Amino acid sequence: MSPTARVYGGVDLGGTKIQTAVVGARGKVLGEAREPTPTTGGPLAVAEAITLAMRQATLAADIDPGALTAIGVGSPGEVDEKAGTVAQARNVSGWDGAFPLGPALAEAFGTRVVLGNDVSVATRAEFELGAGKAYKSIIGVFWGTGVGGGLVLDGREWSGRGAAGEIGHMVVRIGGRRCGCGRRGCLEAYAGRASMEAKARRLVKQGEHTALFEIMEKRGRTRLTSGVWERALQDGDKMAGRLIDQAVEALGAGIASANNLLDVEAIVIGGGLGTKLGDPFVERIREAMMPHLFVDDRPPPLLLAALGDLSGAIGAALVAKAKPSG
Ligand SMILES: [Zn+2]
Fold it and tell me: What is the CA(232)–ligand 1 centre distance, in A?
C-alpha cells in the first residue's frame, strides 16, 4: 500500500462484542477483528478492549496502528460528539457516567477520533454500501441486544433533535411487557435479546422447561447470544419458538407503524439476531408487517443487511472519513 493511502478505523461497540474494521478510502474492508465486550471494569476496561481489537484489525490489514487517518466509533448511549464522551451506554455493564472515550482512543492511536450513534452509523453503511444502496429513503432496523433504528430520508440521515430513530421504543402493546427503558409495551420489550432472555429466566423460575440455558452453558456463554437462540430454534425448543414468535409479531407491528408514518423505499434488517437468523426471518417479519400496513398494495421491500455483522464498524469508519475534524 502506498504510504499516502488513507485508511480508516471503525469500531462497533456492542452489548456483547466489540467489532473493529480497517476500511480503505472507497469503503473496502482491509482487516477486521472482534473482542467480547468486558462485563466488568466499566468504561476503562471497554476502552482497553477496543484498543486491542482495533490493533488486531490493523494487524489483519497489515498496516501500522499509527497509520490510521482517523477512527470512527459507533457507540450506544448518549454520545457527545464535540466532547468525545459517551454516557449511559445502557447495554454495556457498569457504564453510567460520561466517559471520554474519544480522547482515550485518540491518545492510544495518535489520531483523531469521531464518535457517532451505533445504529445511525450502521444505517449509513447499509445506505451507502449495502442493502440500501439503490434507495433514497430507508429505515434500518437492528435486531440484537436491543432493537435500534436508523433513518435516511431523501438521502439525508434524520436524527431529529438527536433522539430520532428509536424504533425499539415504539409502543406495540399499551400496558404491555416492561421494557429495559422502564416503560411498558415497547417493541424492544418483546424483541430485544436482553428482554427475551429476562422473560425466559422468569418462565424457567415459574417451572417451564427450555434448553436455552443448557445450550448457553455448553457454549461457555453467560448470556443467551444470537447463536444460542438459533440453536434452540433448530432443536425445536418450544419456549424459544414462542418467544421468537412474539418478537417477530412485535417487529412486524413496529416496523409497519414506522412505515405508515414515513413511507420509505426500503427497510433493512440487521443486528446480531437479524444477521444470524437471516432471510427466513426477514420473510417472517414481512408477513407479520403486512396486516398492519395502512397502504398495503405497495409494501416497501424488507432486506437483510448486506454488510452483516460489519455494518456498524464500516459505518463508523465512513463517519470518520466524512468528518474532517473532531
Ligand atoms: Zn422502551
Answer: 26
